[in-house]
Amino acid sequence: MSQILPLVRTDTQSALRSHAERLSAATLTDLAGSDARADGLTRSAHGLVLDATRQRIDLPALSALIAAAEESGLRPAIDALFAGLPVNNTESRPALHTALRAAGGPALSVGETDVRAVVAAERERCRTLVSAVTGGVRKGATGQRFTDVVNIGIGGSDLGPVMALEALRSYANPRIRVHFVSNVDGTQLADVLAGIEPASTLFIVCSKTFTTQETLANARVARRWIVDKLGAAAVSRHFLAVSVNHGAMDEFGIAADGRFTLWDWVGGRYSVWSAIGLSIEIALGSSRFEEFLAGAAALDQHFNDAPFERNLPVLHGLLAVWNRNFLNHDTLAVLPYDQRLHRFPAYLQQLMMESNGKRVRKDGTPVTCETGPVVWGEPGSNSQHSFFQLLHQGTTRTAMDFLLAAESSVGLEGMHELAVANCVAQAEAFAYGYSRQEAERDLLARGMSLPGAAELAPHKVHPGNRPSTILMFERLDAVTLGKLVALYEHSVYVSSVLWDINPFDQWGVELGKRLAEGLLPAVRGEAVAAGSAGNTLALLAKLRGGAQG
Length: 549
Ligand code: F6P
Prior knowledge:
By secondary structure, this protein is an alpha/beta fold. It folds into 3 domains: 41-71 and 306-505, Rossmann fold, CATH 3.40.50.10490; 97-290, Glucose-6-phosphate isomerase like protein, domain 1 (Rossmann fold), CATH 3.40.50.10490; 509-544. Helix content is 48%, strand content 11%. The protein is built from 22 helices and 13 strands. The longest helix is centred in the C-terminal third of the chain and has 22 residues, at 478-499. The protein is globular, with a radius of gyration of 25 Å. It starts with 9 loop residues before the first helix and ends in a 5-residue tail after the last helix.
């Protein structure tokens, strides 16, 4: 595909292309060393440091990218986001996740709704609920305190809470265990139910729409489990729900004081800051949850105020465009050097791929360049021992984000030093590589013969020039996590503006959902799968006859 940034002037596009050609010929070793480069490509704000000195970019190319951002209308696009304009054009909605974490701010309304007022009111209801649950004031139907909370939800109604709770596990209340059930196949639910008692379990059904098949299937089985053990009247004590769909919550049997509101103007994958985060808030306490919100709010302000060349989300989003459209890297590996962040890559997969995995522009015409990369990853150092071989010496090109704290999450500084050394060493190896000459020299120094060294050396070469960013922070706490997540949210938005795509819709998930609904009667043997392809019918027949059939 041609790589034309659709809203950028032709001379700026040409400048970007010639920078890319020039920099493709240069190595990171050639580029390294200048103080101006180190200063211009290392930026900090609110305790986060973005070190892009190992990206295959230099300051003139970065300036051209910033010009491209300006020509693409990034400034008015940021203003529109914060002002609550309908930036989600295919659903005619604002995307006001920033309002969920702003304490105060200028008046903001969507239609008749006073956004500041409804957000504050719901925040207060969450605080009250959390204090009642953790303080033992709100009890189960038999008078027992809640010891277990089960969040039932999928996608944005699951990934954010799981990711945040895993990341902040060090701060969790040891008296309340939080479990997550998302998948449709029933195994997660069965495992969770096997380890909990109905009388002391509180379920939170999180679903923006309250129509999602997976969530409703899990919630119905959980409700039957409660009804079987405690009777139908117990449902209202043991279930809370978070949704825009009050009718469906009613129908499910959620009591008025157990219903929490989400709004159309908050996207599912941007909703962890709302009552969708109740499971996190119960585990960590409201103050800690509000620190998470405050961290994100600080990054929002930075995104709104900082000049582009010092603006962390802008730089991160522009580097994504650079790697994708000018250096042809079609994947991004996210590599946190802290096991507590083990669900962060999965969380980012939805945030980045559901947002920017688009093939048409905002006006419905085909995109003019590649859009969102494949996002994946695992914590280091585990990842070093699985897929780093391919990243160092394979033929696929991937960009990388390393996430690195200065301090240990658990007070084991000696071990954390090992993690830091590994992370920095890997970033260095990816950038600067290991040449054939170095390999031969080292083999000879170890006593290998000249022909032996010549034969083995090519296998030891690390070409380097694999671009990475290191995102650093003091420690993994609630404030920092809020900042990190907000940085990625805004980075996604920045890239979307340059690609002229809508990052807030997700039509691409609908077809599969609809087909699954249609196939269900055939899977159950109640009907023939009318309209399905021949190979689908054959496959269903095999499954119904047993896989050997
Ligand atoms: O998979 C599509 C999706 O709509 C996501 O965008 C969303 O986070 C998820 O399903 C769950 O949706 P809901 O919260 O409405 O159950």
